[in-house]
Specification:
Layout: H1 4-12, H2 21-71
Length: 72
């Protein structure tokens, strides 16, 4: 007995979705815009997380140096 996935793939074999040129161009423009904004969001997020993390590491190192110099 055939699996559902096999039947589904067999029915879709050779199927090609055809869109009118205007719909295809609109789809590609929306996709490009989504990708552009997603990239920008990732850049802001990496800065918002990266800068405070770097400052926290630097402060921790300086505090350790301060404690070591005070103990001596």
């Amino acid at each position: 007995m055939k699996d559902f996935d096999d039947i589904f793939k067999q029915r879709l074999e050779g199927y090609e979705m055809k869109l009118p040129a205007s719909d295809r161009d609109d789809f590609l423009n929306r996709k490009a815009t989504r990708e552009r904004y997603a990239r920008r969001r990732r850049n802001f997020l990496s800065l918002a997380v990266g800068i405070p993390a770097a400052l926290a590491i630097i402060c921790a190192i300086l505090f350790c140096i301060y404690l070591l110099s005070k103990a001596s």
